């Protein structure tokens, strides 16, 4: 039976917060479009109504085609969750130019591409929600995070102004800013000294939050009536000081 709830599209859905969010929304009866580079992990997820797509978020055409495929089955995307991201940490002077560019491309360009694929249609329908995953790193800078800070500061600014410009069309924008979450985001950090220093703080919090904590917040935010817009959620473990 075709689900009655609207289509939810999630980038970076193969692991971490994206995977937890996909599972939660599917459990609640939403059809989900799952996008990630590791499509085999998406295909292995045993959840309800889903469409999977191999997507590199830096390529807008790949996102566009995935959305077109899913909308042909389940109708228009009512919620886009821009979750895909990477966090290669290092001191600015030591970080490779490739890591710098990749951080900007995935974390900023990926968000812009996702928004551009759905926003005009949401405005035309006078309905829709875009949730962009930022970070506490979008609020303040910290050691070894220069490019990641810059990318998340940009996501915050883009989201805030886009919200203001599209509010009259009944489209909601929410920034989710997690602190330390026990995911594989650290996989892109190769400097062991930097990684060890970060893990000291993470271990102090027993890993920090879990991905489902953030998924629960996303679901709560989305399921509020459309006239209620939570503009920003900064979420950390209670014992995380920054």
From TrEMBL:
KW Oxidoreductase (keyword) present: yes
A single Gene Ontology MF term assigned here is:
oxidoreductase activity, acting on the CH-OH group of donors, NAD or NADP as acceptor
Q: Kindly state which keywords UniProt assigns to this record, in alphabetical order.
A: Oxidoreductase
Signal peptide location: none
InterPro entries, per database record:
NAD(P)-bd_dom_sf, Sc_DH/Rdtase_CS, SDR_fam
Pfam families listed in its UniProt record: adh_short
Q: What Gene3D superfamilies does its record include?
A: NAD(P)-binding Rossmann-like Domain
Q: Which SUPFAM superfamilies match?
A: NAD(P)-binding Rossmann-fold domains (SSF51735)
Q: CDD domains this protein is in?
A: SDR_c
Q: PANTHER family under this entry?
A: DEHYDROGENASE/REDUCTASE SDR FAMILY MEMBER 11 (PTHR43115), DEHYDROGENASE_REDUCTASE SDR FAMILY MEMBER 11 (PTHR43115:SF4)
Report the family membership.
Belongs to the short-chain dehydrogenases/reductases (SDR) family.
The identity of this protein, by name, is Oxidoreductase
The organism is Williamsoniiplasma luminosum
